[in-house]
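EI: anyone free to look at a 453-residue chain?
SC: sure, send it
EI:
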Amino acid sequence: MAFISSNPFTGEVIEKFPFIPDEELYEKIDLSRSVYYDSWSRISVEERVDKIKGVSKLLRDNDEKYAKIITSEMGKPLKESIGEVNKVAWLIDYYVENAANFLKPKFIEAGYSKSYLRYDPLGGILGIMPWNYPFWQVYRFAIPTMLAGNTVFLKHAPNVPLCALEIEKTFEEILGFKGAFQNLFIDIPQVEKVLEHRFVQGVSLTGSDRAGKSVGAIAGKNIKRSVLELGGNDPFILCKDADIDKAIDQFVIARMSNNGQICIAAKRMFVQADIYDIVKEKLIQSVSQLKIGDPMESDTDITCLARPDLKENLFEQIETIQSLGAALAYKGGEFRGNSCAPIILEMDSTVSYDFDEEVFGPVAVIIKYDDENELLKMANMSKYGLAASIWSQDIASAELLAGKLEVGNVSINKMVASDPRIPFGGTKQSGYGREMSEEGIKEFVNVKAVVVE
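SC: here you go
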């Protein structure tokens, strides 16, 4: 077995990378430990910021180069890959500006001569990252973790090895040395060996709830910190006074971007009964205008799923949903190869309760509801609790509704989107811990209390 880079649109195998042997793995950990103790953890936050800030310019100056690698390995439209690279640059700029303030000592009035909290690094931190946003997910974990003084290891998804190598190169080029960020081409059993190592003090995983349970158990067994950002079954709620046209435009982006392969995608559209028919009609019209084609073409909206097995699983889910009673409202054309045209399914409350899997693909589900009690019962029934979107002109009522949703993030009159300024994470089977903002940079630090009498 190996990490295999292959083009999901053409089927071409680009390059293969074998798993590294344990001996090489431990050499990489030793290098990371040396960098950590000899320099990286010992310099100030301001010095780390000064060393890392050039990564954002490197990415912006070469955004199309990196975007083509992303698209060739996981299949999203090139225009979206370019957007991903530039979003990473925005995140880096945000932390360059704010990291020192986030990590400065916090003084506490407790009656002593002096008492305060320090935010010190922990050591080596492992990131286990997904293929759907192969640059964004890695950097949003790595940048704050490294600026806090930790060194980072990356175990990327096996189908995006070229992305992993390019990310490693950006840090080595800007920092001028190896070891602060290292890519690991390791197999799943080797993950436990990394987390068993005394120098490694934590793990951040973005992936499925199944993967989260496994990694969380390993981390717990070894008393290592963990942040888990897992699946979602996010509700997108249209109240009867919603701006329908704006909501539909945003829903199509939220559901169909990245070929529907997004953890925070709007998985379930709940529509109040009074506006259901017009919403359904407008949604079908909007989705039917999406262009399916080659991901490298600038006007392509929908391309292919990242792997053949993902398409097979998606079709099995569609069959299951329909067998439970969901109706096919729209099908966007023939499916060829690994391509998948958009689909819209209508679901009633019974099906909503019976089907609770995360659907990863360009499949929109619309559900009619009559009142808020029925809505909340369906929306909160899910085992997941990642994010939700509410559409209403009555902001006060929308905020009250937001407080009743069992999710980690709520957006009102906008689609859910990760933002470096806003902490992000879920509850229930969607995981725990937070990424980005001040909360994200403090996930892998030692909050050290110092008291002077």
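EI: The chain has two domains: 2-230+430-452, 235-420.
SC: 👍
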